[in-house]
Amino acid sequence: MTTMTKKLSIVTVAFRFPYPLYISGADVFNFKVAKALLQKGHDIQLLYAFSDALKDGVIHDFKRLDIAYEEHDKGFEFVYDSVRVRLYHEAAFYEQVRAFSKDPDSILWYQQPILEGFDFESLYLPNSKHFVYIRSADELRFFEPVKKSAALIFANSRFCQAKIKSQYQRDAELIFPLPTTECIAKTKEPVADYISFFNPNPVKGIDIVEALIKRNTHRKFIIVYAWHSSLPDRFKAYPNLAILPPLEDISQVYALSRLVLLPAQWEEFFGRIQFEAAWNNIPVCISDRGAAAEFFSGNGVLVTDYSNVDAWQEAIDYLDDSQHYNKAVLACDGLKKGFSFDEQVCQLEKALLKAFKKDA
After folding, report:
1. Could you tell me whether strands 75-80 and 83-89 are parallel, antiparallel, or unpaired per DSSP bridges?
2. C-alpha angle 188-190-194 in degrees, rounded to nearest 5
3. What angle do CA 60, 177, 90 make, to 5 degrees?
4. DSSP assignment string, 107-163
5. How does pLDDT run across 257-310, given as a tens digit for each residue?
């Protein structure tokens, strides 16, 4: 007789805007995981929050994205890509989370807030069932209060695992927040010769990129905004630069790209764009810092002197050689084999079932 897998009941606790109102690699992954777990028969409640001051902006985004929504006294509900999302006023959000935290069947998935004013202490109940997924140095600091009580801590890289072990004295389960194959461009543009860069801000290396744009007037660049990023007006004057808004279909960028720049000036815990580029057979020039080397397979240039613009220029020039470039393209296979979004979801599901004493 076959034993049915018991259903998980997971509640995301996210004091932030939901995808697709907010676009980031982490939010895309969280949403895709929720959808996959729903398809596996689990119960997933997606709870997000907004402040009253941002209500008009929320409605504007619904209309901009052509998303049908329901408005009620607690906030909004909408269905996107077959997944129901609840976006509540602050007071209603706290009320709902507290109710779920007292439900013995509910498992809370705490996520880092992006909105100001989040009162973590009022929501965090040590006796509730909960887990966290740490993906950055900021999250490592933020989730310090749950380091002992969380039933599970997930890490997004071995580099992150080591940080958690050192600072929390906890072992973390490894789950790579991989993209899905939707990031792969179906066709390449006839002239795909852009050098692309994502999320323009100082820690991601925008200063390096601007210097390269100035130096390489014969090359074409793309900068893709993140949801919360911006650029000074002077960038609009660069004739060799195209600036794109946050995109749900990121494959559009890869269809135009020859090379991707990842000049991070801080410790990245995971490189989602490394995978997206590799899955599109596009080499990268990437800072040798944080977890970058863990996910580098020779698919481009690992830049050791990552704060030096000259080092980045040398990396770009190196890949002008067709032999070097084609070798890097072939090395992209190293990030294709053995890495699968579906497999990561299965590992997450298995870990949650084991931790919360469900029969697999």
Report:
1. antiparallel
2. 75
3. 40
4. EEEEE---STT--HHHH--TTSEEEEEE-SHHHHHHTGGGTTT-SEEEESSHHHHHH
5. 999 999 999 999 999 999 999 999 999 999 999 999 999 999 999 999 999 999
